[in-house]
Amino acid sequence: MANVFIMEHPLIKHKIGIIRDMNTGTKEFREMISEIAMLETYESTRDLKLEEVEIETPMSPTTVERLCGKKLAIVPILRAGLGMVPGMQALIPSAKVGHIGMYRDHDTLQPIEYYCKLPADVEERDVFVVDPMLATGGSACDAIAQLKKHGCKRIRFLCIIAAPEGLKKLQEEHPDIDIIVGALDDHLNDKGYIVPGLGDAGDRIFGTM
Ligand code: PRP
Ligand code: URA
After folding, report:
1. DSSP secondary structure of the chain
2. What is the pLDDT of residue 69?
3. Ligand 1 pocket residues where CB is under 6 Å
């Protein structure tokens, strides 16, 4: 079964409270999404490998630790995943960024892929698939299946708010990935929206309400 990590950090909880508030405007909403993504990235990269390197400080030679091992890629699911990228790039500037475009059909709630552009060497990278919302789980499951088709083996999924229904589906369909969740909510409503949730993440990030 996939490993699920639900964030407990007070800063993450505080910022999620701000994005849930319907009175939070587009600018602050976008800033908070990026900052929460940065904090989730920080929390979920404790297992990155380090190697020792000899350097010289202005005072003396010394040994320091430096990241090594596999290179990283960030793959936002369009549109709303884009809002998470700046915060993650601030921590991992060398990560390449791929894009998978998906929207949910309003009636069937099935994801429809309309775009896919990935780094040429994506199969050699540890991949962070990112989307603020895990609702039915259809979009995340399909995006991850697409990455596996491209040969990716080490995949993490980062979201900010998850519904139990989507989390279960993602765990069952992709038991080999790590799932990092900012907050686990109560349920989906009959239109596939997360309750209490925050509404439509893409609309709130890009001001298209
Ligand atoms: C939202 C969200 C996820 C998807 C989650 O995107 O950003 O991609 O819904 O729902 P699911 O778990 O039921 O698949 P949406 O389809 O609204 O597209 P948008 O980001 O372009 O607005
Ligand atoms: N997509 C969103 O943006 N919000 C939800 O609550 C569900 C899917």
Report:
1. --EEEE---HHHHHHHHHHH-TT--HHHHHHHHHHHHHHHHHHHTTT--EEEEEEE-SS-EEEEEEE-SS-EEEEEEETGGGGGHHHHHHH-TT-EE-EEEEEE-TTT--EEEEEEE--TTGGGSEEEEE-SEESSSHHHHHHHHHHHHTT--SEEEEEEEE-HHHHHHHHHH-TTSEEEEEEE-SEE-TTS-EESS-S-HHHHHHT--
2. 78
3. 77-80, 102-104, 109, 111, 131, 133-140, 166, 192, 200-202
